[in-house]
Design goal:
Blueprint (H helix, E strand, L loop, with lengths): L1 H35 L10 E2 L17 E7 L11 E5 L2 E6 L3 E7 L2 E8 L14 E5 L4 E8 L5 E6 L1 H4 L6 E2 L14
Parallel strand pairs: 2-8
Antiparallel strand pairs: 1-10, 2-5, 3-4, 3-6, 6-7, 8-9
Length: about 180
Amino acid sequence: MHRQGSSLQGFRRPVARAIWLGFASLALLALQACSTSGGQVEHWRMVEGKAPQSAPAAADKARQPVAVVFYRDAASGPHAAAPINVYINGQYQASLVGNTYTQQSLCPGNHRLMAAREDVQRRYVSKDEGQAFAVGTEPVQYFRVSEGAGGVAAIAPATAQSADSSLRQLQTHTIPRVVRTGCTA
């Protein structure tokens, strides 16, 4: 009887192993099918070819938002390939790479704008720094984001003419978190 039990044990192990190998093979085939069915499983659109748009009309004409466009021209310098973060009133707008722009609707008035490199070591406290810039009532206003002396990120008001060559690619792969636009509810 003891032999019969041990032969049954010997039978169970190969069956269990075969079942496990079968499941592992099916899982491997499923993963391989996903990776070879048309190339990439996920596709990110980094930019969209479109020009800046005017801000949507407000019900209260006295607080009509304007389109504020931040652009970065074809970058050069030691950090040309690195993105520059743009913050509006301490809130993240975008991480611009060369020859792209981002846009936000803001109401006229003073807004604190900041351009900074990645500063994870400082826990992104640079977003709370920045300079006050006046946003006027013109329908579209421009700010140039650039790499200044020593690789320091900088932001400055610009004209539509100076921004023209950089306004062909709207950067779309980041999500703005700006909610403080200076407009009253």
